[in-house]
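Extended Data, panel c. Modelled sequence:
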Amino acid sequence: MDAILEIAERRGLVVIEDAAQALHAAFRGKQLGTFGDAAAISFHETKNLMSGEGGALVVNNPGWTERAEIIWEKGTNRAAFARGEIARYTWVDLGSSFLPSELTAAFLLAQLEAGADVTAQRLFAWQRYHEALAPLEAAGLLIRPTVPAECRHNGHIYYVLTRDGATRDAALLQLREQNVMAVMHYVPLHSSPAGRRFARTPTPLPITDDLSSRLIRLPLYPSISAQEQAHVVGALERVLAPMGCLARPHASPTLQPRTAAPIPAEMGVFGSAD
């Protein structure tokens, strides 16, 4: 984030954080979602704290607050009217029906009130995986995640890396046969159909592509038991052991310097930095 913010300030750019899964996570003691001009948080059913669907817009730039409220209120200044700031309200801008229902909001409120406890439970389960999988990493069967010292995560996912993409794909199939619902992670944006259509990266992203092809997400939720996690770890060992050790446990693709082609002004650039 330091590098992103420095570049944005130097170039006069706006920073909008994808903080979809970031509640109760921080970088250098600062809550994620509070670094940029704005941030998007998701309350989709797959997130730590959820309301089924929906999300939140965090507006950190004071100059954006009034318009964000108007867009949120279907393009009207109704909120200002409700506060008694104007005599009547009307349509003043673009907008849509972004407000959650009362029932959805009530459900979400209970989740947010339990946020610290939910996060603690997830972190406990995360750490239990981490300790149980240490022998498998020592044996060269997988690589566990590493959390930098300046980061505080929220236990959203626990993943491992396999030797290569073929090993990962075979392992997922065999884990399913042992009643373990392990899955891959996202397809990188730059290689997705929409990514190829609407934007591009100035250079290839071999590390992103490599890690995406080798990553396995393990089942993780607040109420997961020690017995269930032991079953997952045992199944993972039974599946990976016959496939052999990692050829290069911590090696990453070697990047060759290259000159990036100019990017047309109408095209965006995105993707993980390699």
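Strands lie at 16-18, 26-27, 30-31, 38-42, 55-59, 151-152, 158-161, 215-218. This feature is highlighted in the accompanying rendering.
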